[in-house]
Amino acid sequence: MNKQSLNKLSLFLTGMEQRLIDNWEFFKGITAVFKSGTREFPAKVWQDGNKLKMNFSGSTETLESNWLCARIAKIAQNYDSVVINYEERGTTIIIEADDKNVRMKTQEAKEQKEAIIAHSETSHISNRDYYIKVGQADELLREIGILGSNGKIKNDMIRKYNQIDHFVELIDDMLKEAFRENESLTILDCGCGKSYLTFVLNYYIREVLKKPCRFIGLDYSSTVIEASKKIAQNLGYRNMEFKVTDIRNFHTSEKIHMVISLHACNTATDEAIALAVNNNVKAMVMVPCCQQEILKQYSYPPFEPIIKHGILKARMADVITDGIRALILEALGYKVSIVEYISPTETPKNLMLRAVKTQGPDEKALAEYKKLKEMLGINPTLEKLIYLK
Description:
Blueprint: H1 3-22, E1 27-36, E2 39-48, E3 51-56, E4 59-63, H2 68-76, E5 81-88, E6 91-97, E7 102-108, H3 119-122, H4 138-143, H5 158-177, E8 185-190, H6 196-208, E9 213-219, H7 222-235, E10 240-244, E11 258-262, H8 268-278, E12 283-287, H9 293-297, H10 304-307, H11 310-331, E13 334-340, E14 351-357, H12 363-376, H13 381-385
Parallel strand pairs: 8-9, 8-11, 9-10, 11-12
Antiparallel strand pairs: 1-2, 1-5, 2-3, 3-4, 5-6, 6-7, 12-14, 13-14
Helix pairs in contact: 1-2, 5-6, 11-12
């Protein structure tokens, strides 16, 4: 290859090398095919701990990441042309070089597969444009048990598929509006369980929105944490870590951008909210579960003829619990919305609380909370866990 093409190739390789360093957790590998006449000589580069391994011409060597550009350019000197494929999660960069030209192009994740499926097979799939698309997200959907070996959503997982996709839909605007375009996000999942939503968010933020991200999952069950670690390993999601711990015992000096919690029982949701507030986290998404604390505390004489019925008193307690949580967050300067996450025919625990920190403390909301607290005779755990004047 002539000197002019080699210089241009080195320039492109320098950019690729820096991208690899910046996106180390998302790097998947490099393949290259050097050509001399009609003969082809393949090379392969992959991660091995914090180093790189390169196999070429029957031998394997270890490289520092900042040696990669020079090593590939040196090999290219002896050949007529080279085609290099650099792959990271969601993106492939292709560099083609010969004596006439050096070209670089980027390919995003593959387009959704086209398929002709009988109406009887798709009548139970919502007629919507999915955020987590079959075809693009096959590896993820297969690993978390939603996609079958035939490339179709399993019949008994259609409801779950719709739920996780709707979760992404409900926080998509938050992800795009609350954070800068290229801001690297660290997201904490409290009570992560098997972490299906965390894996889905990881995929969506990194491979669809193209944002750098990192995830931390917390759960007191070592069984589910080990299961989550195994899925992350199988998917090659190196930007995730999982810890066996109670929410209250988790401490970090790392900046957390968002806290999520799905169906954390009773006051565990309050613990997740408090963790977000006390760590000055900008955004949170909570889907509460069973709520006994306020049920045991509250009374309101004007409603006694109604709440003498136990089921009505319990439902009112659920409304009061989530309403109080929202009011406390508003008093702390969060913009709060509460929406229906999934149909109440599937579960009565179907509300999602979304909150984004937008301003300083709101004295009016604080006064309203204190008035309600006194009127209802309640003493919420959430207030005890955070600093509320």
